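Q: Convert this sequence to structure tokens.
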Amino acid sequence: MQATNHHAIITLFTYRYLLDEPQPPHDFKQDIEELNVFPERLEISHVDEWRSYIRRYISRNKLTNEQIEALTQRLDIPEVYEEYQYLKSIVITALKINDSPDVKVINTPLKEYLNKLINL
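A:
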């Protein structure tokens, strides 16, 4: 089951990467690189954001299934493939960290304080 979920997340990441349109201040690639420091963001927010972004993009651009599948041909470009593999490795590492029973998110005093305020 876990491998299936990982495959779905990697598929979402792939389409989100291929459909990326830089829109300041949002930087998809920077978000992925920040997973090195904050791996919990992957499943807390990124997956839902990717799903939403992909749906909006497909709807707005009225892409057909054939056009969506053709996007993967961009990975035949060596520079694109190299960057994709680099970012994908970060996502895979974040998945492994999030699934590890030996890794815990450390709550800082500020985070604990903010959580208390939110839950009042």
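Helices lie at 2-18, 28-33, 41-61, 65-70, 78-99, 109-118.
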